[in-house]
Amino acid sequence: MGSTSGESDGESRPSEPVFSDRIFTVPNIISLARLLLVPVVGGLILTGHLVAAFVVLVGAGFSDWLDGVIARRFNQTSRLGRFLDPSADRLFILVTIVGLAVQQIIPWWLVVVLLAREIAVGLCLPAMARRGYPGFPVHVAGKAGTFALMYAFPLLLLSHLSGLWGEVAWVIGWAAALWGVFLYWAAGLLYLNQFREIVTGRVQPT
């Protein structure tokens, strides 16, 4: 994830990462592999192989952390990584919540709440692109929300287990999911405010 880190308030900051045009970097390869696992985890959930889906999601979460560490440590941040990394996260979240809803592990209203945020932010992107912005700079609230959701859903997959482990997974999973939804929407509102500042000319591309 860290390959997408960085914020902008319209001023240049020397500490901001410089994104290169490199394609074949280790973080990009890890992000691409994570993208390829999206249909795998979707198929596992829909076919009822929930423990296997849990393992894949945990591995994806670890790889998400790993590519960020590598990107920062070895200066391998790139424009492609800035796109691939959040795209993989969003697709994992989308496929997982739909699968969990189909399996009746989570209610459909949770799917609607998360999709509404993605649609609200996504509708701003074409107008931003016309003004020279490739997308929103990642905010810490969005990263924290994504992190919470990426670890809430694997736990909810285990909530079907009988006994203490299933109950603990259900409680912690729902606590993380609700916190993640709050942070996800908090970041979304920050992005929408950034969009308002851009379209009103208060912020200019750097």
TrEMBL record:
Pfam family, one: CDP-OH_P_transf
Single GO MF descriptor: CDP-diacylglycerol-glycerol-3-phosphate 3-phosphatidyltransferase activity
Record field: transmembrane: 36-62, 83-102, 140-162, 168-192
Keywords associated with the record: Lipid biosynthesis, Lipid metabolism, Membrane, Phospholipid biosynthesis, Phospholipid metabolism, Transferase, Transmembrane, Transmembrane helix
One GO term (biological process): glycerophospholipid biosynthetic process
Homology family: Belongs to the CDP-alcohol phosphatidyltransferase class-I family.
UniProt-recorded name of the protein: CDP-diacylglycerol--glycerol-3-phosphate 3-phosphatidyltransferase
Species this protein is from: Ruania alba
